[in-house]
Structures are given as structure tokens and as C-alpha cells.
What we know:
The structure holds two protein chains of two kinds.
Chain A: H1 3-32, H2 48-61, H3 63-68, H4 70-89, H5 98-111, H6 114-131, H7 133-138, H8 141-162, H9 168-179, H10 193-208, H11 216-219, H12 224-227, H13 240-243
Chain B: H1 35-38, H2 51-65, H3 67-75, H4 87-92, H5 99-114, H6 116-120, H7 122-125, H8 132-141, H9 150-154, H10 161-174, H11 180-192, H12 200-218, E1 233-236, H13 247-261, E2 265-266, H14 284-301, E3 305-308, H15 312-326, E4 340-341, H16 342-352, E5 367-370, H17 373-378, H18 387-399, H19 430-436, H20 438-451, E6 455-458, H21 461-470, E7 481-483, H22 484-491, H23 504-509
Parallel strand pairs in B: 1-2, 1-3, 3-4, 5-6, 6-7
Helix pairs in contact in B: 2-3, 2-10, 5-10, 13-22, 14-15, 16-18, 18-22
The structure holds iron/sulfur cluster (2 copies).
Amino acid sequence: MSFLTIAFAALFYAATLLLVVGLVRRIMLYWKTPAPLKIPTTPAPVTQSGVVMRMFREVVFFESLFKSTKWTWLFGWVFHMALFAVLFRHLRYFTDIQWLMAIVAFVSPLFKYLAFAMIIGLLGLLGRRLFVDRVRYISAPSDYLMLLLLLLIGISGAMTTFVAHTDVVVVKQFFRSLMYFNFGDMPNLPTDPFILVHLFLVALLMIIFPVSKLLHAPGVFFSPTRNQVDNPREQRHVADWARKLEQ
Amino acid sequence: MAKADFEIPELKEYPEVPKVVPGTMAHSQPFIAKPEFQEPLGFPGELPEDWHDKAISAMGDLLGKYRSLQVYLDSCVKCGACTDKCHYYLGTKDPKNMPVGRQDLLRKVYRRYFTFAGKYFPKLVGAEDLTKEVLDDWYSYFHQCSQCRRCSVFCPYGIDTAEISMAAREIMDRIGVGQKYCNEIIGKVYKIGNNLGLPEAALADTLEGLEEDVEEDTGVAVKYPLDVKGADILLVTPSADFFAEPHVDGLIGYGKVFHEAGVSWTLSSKASEAANFGMFIGSYENMRRVSMRIREAALELGVKRIIFGECGHAWRVAYSFLNTLAGPFDFLDPKYPVPQHILEFTWNEIQKGTLNIDKSANDDMVLTFHDSCNVARASRMGPEPGGQFKIPRNVIKAVCNNFYDMAPETIHEKTFCCGGGGGLLTDDLMELRVKGAKPRMEALKNVIEEHGVTNMAAICAICKSQFTKVLPYYGLDMDMIVSVHQLVSNAIILTGQTSEDDDDESADDAA
Ligand code: SF4
Ligand code: SF4
């Protein structure tokens, strides 16, 4: 195995560990922190299934963002949806499950062009950050860097498909060996720069995910204004720390 | 037009989003509460020497107690969707009045002390130490948020700046930096039972006066009872209803509705105030203590139901929190929700047909309706989501012939704040109140021009007081703001009523 391959293998183990441990800890924190009062933003659903629907519309269609700013919605939504489509396509590196592979293979020819949609969405978001004075005012360096990071990931990834084809069979083998700790079969990673940059930046993204604003991904599910049922007259809702006041 | 030593914003036909002008409102601060008003609420009297550490540990404490705070401080992606949604930003151009700008005042400190990125890469993520300047900014800008929650409607993660403002105010209270207006009022509630400090005798006097007035006008002896044991309904209403215009006309209206519905009801001198300023300062303990009076009053009087009068944030606390804070209310009649809103009661009676209504009594007015923030975005009426929009309008339309809504992006859950909510209804914040009212004034002016609207109805004591004060700055008449139950009162013909017209102005226009 080449030094490069070993370095990347180590990097991906570290990144995965940090991502999983970081996210689990954060989610546990959100889970355990009490929500002592009902604060759904009304009009809110009065049933649990209504809340599930509300959350679904929020997560899949970005309903609230659509209400606020159409441009931001357009760029943000296109970016996220393209990202998920492209990620779905990446399943082919991790699985041998036949039916899943069949679906991936079926959508692949179309989904690969969504990399461009992802890049356009990101450029739109960056443009907003640069040219709308209000958004510029609230942006910290990390907000720009995050967009640049995602842009570079998108561009380098697209390059490996559209410009300098990477040997995906080898890449797949590399990740399957990583997943099964099967180092005997681990091939050397291809050395073309686009795939190496791509993989490096992805690992970086995984590492900073749990300490960055990317926490909005789990956060949205824990947002009391969105995930609470509007039934405070019917049900009491006393947090443990508040119950102490009742004694 | 009222005189002002600041620039009054010009109303445009189409609302414009201003360019940011940093610092326009940095000078705006409410008076600080004196030690004698801090202590009864359980807060230190003044800034202690180790205020910095105390503030950080208070922040840590609140982070552990409120999921909203923890999640909201982590989740903002700086998308900017909320930046043009706050009436205070639209009216003042100060970027720290953009919801995310306001949150960031707290968030940068949170990051610095509670997150990995902020501890090790503060510059990169915009984290900052808590300094005296930052504290100063907190005091300015967290008292420029009316906790109206308009931003929470538009944020993709539902981030509610009100939650953050409340937490910030609680932190400041815990280091002795309280706001005079709120904290003095809470103190009065503890001491005397209401925000205005009206003692029991004065209350009784006022109510007697009302009875006389109504009887003189109508010939019917409508009762406005106080502390009647064994009454069915306990009415809790904002103390402004006892004497200020147009609030008191609303109280007259509630009495007439109860009278015609044939129910027995009472006010309580112990819980003679619906408002709960504990919410404005973000203090669960104080909010609970204020709420407990209502439970005690209900128990002492032995009532079966609790109904709240027209007050926005009081209704939020009542609807959303009362059961949690002061419940369970299993000693009340389970047939009715606890508590109910007076509009739920009135709308029910209208549907049953118990009220004899002459709509033409309100023909001298063309009305529009101002959705109060706390009712619109933080509570409900009736069983269906959105009942808080429909029921008040249904009642207005049932008692008036002329009604027009303001532009759709300025009503319902997108309603604009009056500019005086959240404990900002104090004269020391007049500039903020006037500027913050701008978006509402614009929408109002448009319906005045398009439909000849003459009056705006509201169901919140703070909205009513704020508009009365602010309308003249925009060249409008302070009397154009009315209570919804004032309209009901005008239109009800009481059983056995002798005179048709209970006040002379409406006689001219009634055909
Ligand atoms: S809309 Fe929400 S996520 Fe976007 S900047 Fe405002 S608070 Fe942050
Ligand atoms: S809660 Fe209302 S006043 Fe406060 S920041 Fe949001 S929109 Fe502005």
C-alpha cells in the first residue's frame, strides 16, 4: 500500500469517528435538554401526525424558507436536493445490495448532472452573501469558508466524472476495505489530483460538521417551534427542573 | 402630529427593505431597575464585581434548562431569510435589529465560552468575549425586541428570537441589570395584584361607576361584580380595562355579553390582572408566581371556568403556559377548556343566537383588524389551528357592516407588531416604539386610502395603548383604535333596553 493510501485510510477513520461521536453527543444533548414550555409557532398542528407533516414539509420543501425569501429558497433548495441526489449516487461505493445498486445504476446517468445544480445553488448562495448588504453584515469568515468548501467538493467531484475520469472500481474497493477492515484487499488509491482533493475535503467536512453551523441538520428536528403539538390546554407539560418549584 | 426629537419614518406605499445603517439605535436603552425593584423578584440589586462569571454561568444554566436556546444558538446558518422580517429593523435600519443580528449578540458569547470552534478559532466563527461593551449592546438591543416571533415564522429552523431575548434578559436580571418598567410592574402585581397598582377599593369604585354608566345609557342593570364567591366564571383581564380608553369600552362589552348570556361571573381583586410580565423578562419562576394568583383566586372563589379578557401576551401565557405553570385545573368544570378567551365565549353566544345584535350601531365606522403577535403566533382560539385569526374576525363581522383586512403579508401569522410589545411600552423607548410601528402604519394607511377605513380594532391592551400613543406621530387620530368588545358592546341590544342608541356620536350616522 502506498503512503497516500494509508494516510487517506487513517484520515477517513478519524473523520468518521469524529463525525459520529460528535453528532451523537450533540443529538443526546438536544434530546436531554428539557423544553419546559410549549412554544410552537402557531397556527400549529393539534395532533402528532400533523406535526410529522409539518416537519416533513419543512425538511423536504423548506416551507418556511419559501415563505421568507424566494431567491434564498431557490438556491438553498436546489443545492440541498442536488446534494442528496448526488450523495445517493455515491451509494454505489459502499454497497453491493443488488436492488439498491440497480436503482442507483438506473438514476445515475441523470443524477450525475445534478452536480451542476449543486454548484449553481452554492454559487447563488455565495452571491447573496457577497452582494446583499444585510447578509454580508451577518456573515463570519466561516460562513464563506463553508460555502467554498462545499463548492470545491462539488467541483472536484464533478471533475472526476466529467473531466478526468477516476477509476471508480478502485475507489469502491478502497472504501469497501475500509468498511470491513479488510486491509489485505485494500488497493492503492488512484493518484489523480481531483479525486484526492475531493476525498480530502469530504473528510474535512465530516470533521467540522459537529462543531459547525451544519448542526442545523439535526437541529431542525429538535426545534420546539416546529416539532411541538399545539395542545397546552389539554396537557400539562412540566419539565423536571420546573417540577421542583411545585414542592 | 406629535412632536419628536427623532426622525419619524416616512410611510411608503410599498414597504421597502432599508440598507443597513449600523448603530442607529445603539443609544436606545430603557431605564435600569433600582435595587428595591430587583430584590422582590429574586434578583440582585446591582451589577456585582464578578458579573462576568455570573453571566456566563447563568447562560450555562439556561442552556441546560431550555432546549430552544441550545438548539437555536447552534442551528443558525446565517441564511439571512429573517433579516428583513423584523419591524424594528424595517423602522430603524439598525442591523442589530435584524433577528439574526440580535441573536448573534448572544450567540457570539455562547460560541466563545461553550463551543469548540469559538474557544479555539474565535475570529473564524465570529465568537467574542463577554465585555462591558457587549453587555451594553445586550441591554440596548434585547430591549428592542418585542418578542413578537415574526422572525420565527420565516426561519427555516423555526429559530425564535423571542426565546433568545428572554434568555438574555434573564441573564441580565441575574446580574442585577433589570429593566425598570417590567420589574416594577411585576413587583406591583405581587404587592397589590395588578400592573397599575389599583387597590381593591379603587377597583370596586370603578366597577360601580361602570354599572351606573351602563344603566344610564341603556336602562338595564348590567352587573360588573368583584369577588363574588360561587360565581361560575372568573374573568381575568388586563388592568388597563378598568379605566383607560378604549380598553374600558371592551370591559363594558364583556359585561353585556355575560349579562345577555345569563351566566354568573366575577372579577377577582386578588387576580385583577391578566398580564404576566414574567414572560417578558424570560423568568419562569416569576411567570409561575404571577400565574399562581389566578389559581388561588379561582379556588377561593369556587368558580367553574376561567375566561381571559382582551390582552395579547396574557393570552399567550394563559393559553400556552397556565395549565403547565399553575395547573392542574381539575377543580374546574371539565366541559370547558382552561382557560377560555372572551372571544371564544362571545363567538359561541353569537352562534347560539343569544345576543340581540344591531349591526348598524357600528355603521359610523369602517374597520380593519390588527392581529396581535402573541395571539397570532403563539396561541389559538377554538379547536382548529388558525382559530385565532378567524374567531375575532367572525365576531367583528357579526357586529359591523364594514370590514376590510390589511394586506395579506401583514396579517394573520405574518402580522406586524404594534411596536410596543415585550415590555417596551414605556416612555423611555418612544423613539423605538414610533419607528417600530412603521410597517403596521404603512399597512394601515393603505387600507385607509383604498377602503376608507376609519378604525382599527385590536384585542390586546398593549397594542391599544401603543397605537393610541403612536398614531398621532404618523398624522393619524389616536381615537381610531377600538376594542373588539367595544364594537360588540355598541351593537348589543340588551333585553329590556330602553334607549336604542347608547351613545350620541353613533346616532348621527345610523340610518
Ligand atoms: S432565518 Fe434563521 S437560519 Fe436564517 S439567518 Fe435568520 S435565524 Fe439564522
Ligand atoms: S421577535 Fe419580533 S421583535 Fe424580536 S427579533 Fe423577531 S421579529 Fe424582531
